[in-house]
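From the shared-data thread, chain only:
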Amino acid sequence: MAKSVPVHCPTCHREHSFTPPTFPCACGTPLTLPVPPDASPELLAHRTWRDSWVAVRCPSCDRQGQWPRPELGCSCGTVVRLPVLPPRDAEDTSEDVKGVTSPEEAAPEAPSDAAPRPRAISKPPFRPVAIRTERDAVMSAERYLRWLGFPDVRRPGNCPAPAASGVDLCATGVVARVDPTTLPTTLRDIECLWLYGLLDSATSVCFSLAGYARDARCRADDLRLPLFVMDLTGTPQPLNEWADELVRRGRR
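Structure, as C-alpha coordinates:
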Protein backbone atom coordinates (compact mmCIF):
# COMPACT_ATOMS: atom_id res chain seq x y z
CA MET A 1 0.00 0.00 0.00
CA ALA A 2 1.27 3.45 -0.90
CA LYS A 3 2.42 5.60 2.02
CA SER A 4 0.60 8.90 2.50
CA VAL A 5 2.48 12.20 2.44
CA PRO A 6 1.59 15.46 4.23
CA VAL A 7 0.40 18.28 1.98
CA HIS A 8 -0.23 21.87 3.16
CA CYS A 9 -2.83 23.98 1.37
CA PRO A 10 -1.14 27.21 0.19
CA THR A 11 -4.38 29.14 0.74
CA CYS A 12 -5.69 28.15 4.19
CA HIS A 13 -2.53 26.30 5.35
CA ARG A 14 -4.57 23.27 6.41
CA GLU A 15 -2.58 20.03 6.42
CA HIS A 16 -3.90 17.03 4.49
CA SER A 17 -2.77 13.43 4.34
CA PHE A 18 -2.47 12.49 0.65
CA THR A 19 -2.06 8.92 -0.58
CA PRO A 20 -0.38 8.81 -4.03
CA PRO A 21 -2.54 6.99 -6.59
CA THR A 22 -1.60 3.56 -7.90
CA PHE A 23 -2.21 2.45 -11.49
CA PRO A 24 -1.76 -0.93 -13.24
CA CYS A 25 1.22 -0.95 -15.59
CA ALA A 26 0.91 -2.85 -18.88
CA CYS A 27 3.22 -5.50 -17.40
CA GLY A 28 0.73 -6.10 -14.58
CA THR A 29 2.77 -4.46 -11.81
CA PRO A 30 0.99 -1.89 -9.60
CA LEU A 31 2.67 1.47 -10.25
CA THR A 32 2.45 4.11 -7.50
CA LEU A 33 3.23 7.66 -8.58
CA PRO A 34 6.36 8.75 -6.63
CA VAL A 35 5.13 11.87 -4.82
CA PRO A 36 7.96 13.11 -2.53
CA PRO A 37 7.18 13.37 1.21
CA ASP A 38 8.21 17.04 1.22
CA ALA A 39 6.03 17.86 -1.77
CA SER A 40 5.43 21.55 -2.44
CA PRO A 41 1.96 21.83 -4.00
CA GLU A 42 1.34 24.08 -6.98
CA LEU A 43 -1.84 26.16 -6.99
CA LEU A 44 -3.98 24.98 -9.90
CA ALA A 45 -5.68 28.02 -11.42
CA HIS A 46 -6.18 26.66 -14.94
CA ARG A 47 -6.20 23.06 -16.15
CA THR A 48 -5.05 21.92 -19.58
CA TRP A 49 -5.03 18.33 -20.82
CA ARG A 50 -1.33 18.48 -21.79
CA ASP A 51 -0.19 19.60 -18.32
CA SER A 52 -2.46 17.11 -16.60
CA TRP A 53 -0.28 14.08 -17.46
CA VAL A 54 3.13 13.06 -16.19
CA ALA A 55 5.68 10.53 -17.50
CA VAL A 56 6.61 7.82 -14.97
CA ARG A 57 8.81 4.79 -15.61
CA CYS A 58 7.77 1.41 -14.21
CA PRO A 59 10.54 0.08 -11.93
CA SER A 60 9.63 -3.50 -12.86
CA CYS A 61 9.58 -3.49 -16.68
CA ASP A 62 11.28 -0.10 -17.29
CA ARG A 63 8.38 0.94 -19.52
CA GLN A 64 7.59 4.67 -19.40
CA GLY A 65 3.93 5.61 -19.45
CA GLN A 66 1.78 8.73 -19.20
CA TRP A 67 -0.35 8.92 -16.05
CA PRO A 68 -2.71 11.55 -14.57
CA ARG A 69 -0.77 14.09 -12.54
CA PRO A 70 -1.85 13.85 -8.86
CA GLU A 71 -4.09 16.62 -7.55
CA LEU A 72 -5.69 17.41 -4.19
CA GLY A 73 -8.81 19.44 -3.44
CA CYS A 74 -8.88 21.29 -0.12
CA SER A 75 -12.11 21.96 1.77
CA CYS A 76 -11.48 25.70 1.34
CA GLY A 77 -12.06 25.29 -2.39
CA THR A 78 -8.41 25.34 -3.47
CA VAL A 79 -7.15 22.67 -5.89
CA VAL A 80 -3.41 21.95 -5.93
CA ARG A 81 -1.19 19.86 -8.19
CA LEU A 82 1.53 17.72 -6.60
CA PRO A 83 5.01 17.13 -8.03
CA VAL A 84 6.22 13.69 -9.07
CA LEU A 85 9.84 12.60 -8.72
CA PRO A 86 11.85 12.05 -11.92
CA PRO A 87 12.38 8.33 -12.74
CA ARG A 88 15.97 8.18 -11.39
CA ASP A 89 15.10 9.94 -8.12
CA ALA A 90 12.10 7.67 -7.68
CA GLU A 91 14.29 4.57 -8.08
CA ASP A 92 16.82 5.91 -5.55
CA THR A 93 14.06 6.59 -3.05
CA SER A 94 12.63 3.11 -3.45
CA GLU A 95 16.10 1.60 -2.86
CA ASP A 96 16.46 3.64 0.34
CA VAL A 97 13.12 2.41 1.55
CA LYS A 98 14.07 -1.20 0.87
CA GLY A 99 17.09 -0.88 3.17
CA VAL A 100 15.04 0.33 6.14
CA THR A 101 13.50 -2.19 8.49
CA SER A 102 9.89 -1.34 9.24
CA PRO A 103 8.55 -1.53 12.81
CA GLU A 104 6.41 -4.49 11.75
CA GLU A 105 9.52 -6.39 10.57
CA ALA A 106 11.52 -5.53 13.69
CA ALA A 107 8.79 -6.49 16.14
CA PRO A 108 9.15 -9.95 17.73
CA GLU A 109 6.67 -12.59 16.73
CA ALA A 110 3.72 -13.11 19.03
CA PRO A 111 3.67 -16.33 21.06
CA SER A 112 1.89 -19.16 19.31
CA ASP A 113 -0.54 -19.57 22.21
CA ALA A 114 -1.60 -15.90 22.12
CA ALA A 115 -5.28 -15.31 21.45
CA PRO A 116 -5.87 -14.19 17.85
CA ARG A 117 -6.89 -10.59 17.44
CA PRO A 118 -10.31 -9.95 15.87
CA ARG A 119 -10.02 -8.80 12.28
CA ALA A 120 -11.48 -5.37 11.61
CA ILE A 121 -14.10 -5.30 8.88
CA SER A 122 -13.48 -2.39 6.53
CA LYS A 123 -14.74 -1.27 3.17
CA PRO A 124 -12.52 -2.34 0.25
CA PRO A 125 -10.52 0.50 -1.31
CA PHE A 126 -12.15 2.49 -4.09
CA ARG A 127 -10.88 1.58 -7.56
CA PRO A 128 -10.91 4.73 -9.71
CA VAL A 129 -11.05 5.15 -13.48
CA ALA A 130 -8.50 7.51 -15.02
CA ILE A 131 -10.36 10.42 -16.62
CA ARG A 132 -9.50 11.12 -20.24
CA THR A 133 -12.98 11.87 -21.59
CA GLU A 134 -16.31 13.16 -20.30
CA ARG A 135 -17.63 9.60 -20.28
CA ASP A 136 -14.75 8.56 -17.99
CA ALA A 137 -15.77 11.27 -15.52
CA VAL A 138 -19.35 9.97 -15.37
CA MET A 139 -18.10 6.39 -15.07
CA SER A 140 -15.82 7.32 -12.17
CA ALA A 141 -18.67 9.07 -10.32
CA GLU A 142 -20.89 6.06 -10.98
CA ARG A 143 -18.31 3.71 -9.48
CA TYR A 144 -17.88 6.00 -6.50
CA LEU A 145 -21.61 6.05 -5.74
CA ARG A 146 -21.70 2.26 -5.93
CA TRP A 147 -18.74 2.18 -3.55
CA LEU A 148 -20.66 4.43 -1.15
CA GLY A 149 -23.52 1.94 -1.08
CA PHE A 150 -25.83 2.81 -3.99
CA PRO A 151 -25.72 -0.36 -6.14
CA ASP A 152 -28.61 0.62 -8.43
CA VAL A 153 -26.90 3.67 -9.95
CA ARG A 154 -28.08 4.24 -13.53
CA ARG A 155 -27.44 6.63 -16.40
CA PRO A 156 -29.79 9.39 -17.70
CA GLY A 157 -31.52 7.10 -20.20
CA ASN A 158 -32.81 5.01 -17.31
CA CYS A 159 -33.48 7.93 -14.94
CA PRO A 160 -36.87 9.60 -14.52
CA ALA A 161 -35.15 13.01 -14.61
CA PRO A 162 -35.74 15.12 -17.74
CA ALA A 163 -32.71 15.84 -19.92
CA ALA A 164 -32.68 19.51 -18.94
CA SER A 165 -32.53 18.79 -15.20
CA GLY A 166 -28.73 18.48 -15.08
CA VAL A 167 -28.95 14.99 -13.54
CA ASP A 168 -26.30 12.59 -14.92
CA LEU A 169 -26.75 9.69 -12.48
CA CYS A 170 -29.53 8.52 -10.22
CA ALA A 171 -30.18 5.73 -7.74
CA THR A 172 -32.59 4.99 -4.93
CA GLY A 173 -32.30 8.01 -2.65
CA VAL A 174 -29.72 9.97 -4.63
CA VAL A 175 -29.38 12.07 -7.79
CA ALA A 176 -26.03 13.31 -9.06
CA ARG A 177 -24.57 15.80 -11.50
CA VAL A 178 -21.12 15.25 -13.04
CA ASP A 179 -19.46 18.39 -14.43
CA PRO A 180 -16.40 17.39 -16.54
CA THR A 181 -15.79 20.86 -18.00
CA THR A 182 -12.74 23.03 -17.34
CA LEU A 183 -14.87 25.82 -15.81
CA PRO A 184 -16.06 25.88 -12.18
CA THR A 185 -19.58 24.57 -11.55
CA THR A 186 -22.02 27.49 -11.28
CA LEU A 187 -24.64 28.55 -8.75
CA ARG A 188 -27.42 27.76 -11.23
CA ASP A 189 -26.13 24.21 -11.67
CA ILE A 190 -26.23 23.65 -7.91
CA GLU A 191 -29.72 25.09 -7.46
CA CYS A 192 -31.19 23.12 -10.40
CA LEU A 193 -29.70 19.90 -9.05
CA TRP A 194 -31.01 20.60 -5.55
CA LEU A 195 -34.52 21.35 -6.84
CA TYR A 196 -34.71 18.06 -8.71
CA GLY A 197 -33.47 16.16 -5.67
CA LEU A 198 -36.14 17.91 -3.61
CA LEU A 199 -38.88 16.88 -6.04
CA ASP A 200 -37.61 13.30 -6.08
CA SER A 201 -37.12 13.15 -2.26
CA ALA A 202 -33.47 12.25 -2.89
CA THR A 203 -30.07 13.50 -1.78
CA SER A 204 -28.47 15.67 -4.46
CA VAL A 205 -24.73 15.14 -5.00
CA CYS A 206 -22.41 17.06 -7.32
CA PHE A 207 -19.07 15.99 -8.81
CA SER A 208 -16.89 18.59 -10.54
CA LEU A 209 -13.55 18.37 -12.32
CA ALA A 210 -12.74 22.10 -12.12
CA GLY A 211 -14.17 22.93 -8.70
CA TYR A 212 -16.97 25.35 -7.87
CA ALA A 213 -17.66 29.06 -8.10
CA ARG A 214 -17.60 30.75 -4.69
CA ASP A 215 -21.33 31.50 -4.66
CA ALA A 216 -22.09 27.93 -5.76
CA ARG A 217 -19.98 26.57 -2.91
CA CYS A 218 -21.73 28.79 -0.33
CA ARG A 219 -25.18 27.90 -1.67
CA ALA A 220 -24.39 24.18 -1.55
CA ASP A 221 -23.38 24.53 2.11
CA ASP A 222 -26.67 26.29 2.86
CA LEU A 223 -28.63 23.55 1.08
CA ARG A 224 -26.59 20.75 2.72
CA LEU A 225 -25.66 19.47 -0.72
CA PRO A 226 -22.54 17.24 -0.85
CA LEU A 227 -19.80 18.54 -3.14
CA PHE A 228 -16.95 16.45 -4.53
CA VAL A 229 -13.99 17.47 -6.68
CA MET A 230 -12.42 14.99 -9.08
CA ASP A 231 -8.88 14.87 -10.41
CA LEU A 232 -7.72 13.01 -13.49
CA THR A 233 -6.99 9.88 -11.45
CA GLY A 234 -10.77 9.55 -11.11
CA THR A 235 -10.81 9.70 -7.32
CA PRO A 236 -13.50 12.04 -5.93
CA GLN A 237 -12.51 14.07 -2.86
CA PRO A 238 -15.15 15.47 -0.45
CA LEU A 239 -15.15 19.26 -0.49
CA ASN A 240 -17.63 20.19 2.27
CA GLU A 241 -18.92 18.71 5.52
CA TRP A 242 -22.00 17.27 3.83
CA ALA A 243 -19.79 15.28 1.46
CA ASP A 244 -17.75 14.06 4.45
CA GLU A 245 -20.98 12.94 6.14
CA LEU A 246 -22.11 11.07 3.00
CA VAL A 247 -18.77 9.24 2.84
CA ARG A 248 -19.05 8.28 6.53
CA ARG A 249 -22.60 6.99 6.48
CA GLY A 250 -22.98 5.90 2.84
CA ARG A 251 -26.47 4.66 2.06
CA ARG A 252 -28.62 4.14 5.14
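Helices lie at 87-98, 103-106, 134-148, 187-199, 214-222, 241-249.
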